[in-house]
Design goal:
The protein is an all-alpha fold. The chain has a domain at about 35-75. The protein is built from three helices and no strands. It has helices at about 30-45, 50-65, 65-75. The longest helix has 19 residues, at about 30-45. The N and C termini lie far apart (about 75 Å).
Length: about 80
């Protein structure tokens, strides 16, 4: 039995050097801003809750606070 070894070519990394980076410091800024906003919204919605269910709704509202901000901006500018 004869085994023939096939040569394989390495695939070249054709990645754009501007988008293929391991520098995560510039990519994590949006997450930090969202996290601080989440904590602020969580504190606000829970502190204004009048019952357990309103507190639970406050937690859910804190998760989607950017939608409330965008909706408010659209109403403000009449869009």
């Amino acid at each position: 039995m004869i085994i023939i070894a096939k040569k394989t070519k390495k695939k070249e990394n054709k990645c754009n050097p501007n988008c293929c980076t391991t520098d995560f410091s510039s990519m994590c800024k949006g997450g930090a801003i969202y996290g601080m906003g989440f904590i602020g919204a969580l504190v606000y919605f829970i502190s204004t809750a009048t019952s357990f269910w309103m507190g639970l709704l406050g937690i859910l509202k804190a998760l989607v606070w950017p939608a409330f901000v965008v909706h408010g901006l659209f109403k403000l500018f009449g869009l």
